[in-house]
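Example record

The entry below shows one chain as it appears in the dataset: sequence first, then structure tokens.
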Amino acid sequence: MTAARATLVDAAAVLDYPIARDQRLPSHYFTTFWHHRWLNSTLHLTADMAVQGAALNLFFIAQSQTPIGTLPDDDLILSRLLRIDITTWQDLRDRRIGPLHNWHPVNCDGEIRLGHPVVLEVVQDALHRREHNAVSKESKAVYARQQRLKDALSALGLGKDVLADQVLIERMEQWLTDNRPGRRTIQSYEAVVVHAQQQRWFGRS
């Protein structure tokens, strides 16, 4: 099968695309571009400028497709995405090194689309960064809440040994999260102290 042409393909005969359709990158306005890999690639070194331009645009177009990082296996749609007529697209596609160099069929939940190993790397890197940033942001938020809890406990007269008990602080913070959502008042902190006493959390660790 020629990857550029819309062709009937058995979905079981190609590799499954590893990114689900419901994965989204709404703030993906910036795309990592490994220029050194591009400048040393077969496509850059052997294809003419028209092919290179179309190839680069396809790399970027794929960032906003579904699933992220894929292209439709359809000449007409690809030509429309590139804003060129179908005849021009077919001419570019049929060259020895064309804009779809290294794109290959992938199975996207039963739909055959086109995937590219480098584009996939870029998307997976963006997803990983998003997850890492989300974890980092949540970790900072938890730390800030624990610090406010310690300040409140100190104001209520609890000693340094209590404030230094990280297991206790984490238990109390979790109880507040589960039972006192929203803005925390002095009554919230008094309530968690009473609960900790009832559960005999003090001094356990």
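Notes for this example: The chain has a mean pLDDT of 86. DSSP finds nine helices and three strands in the chain.
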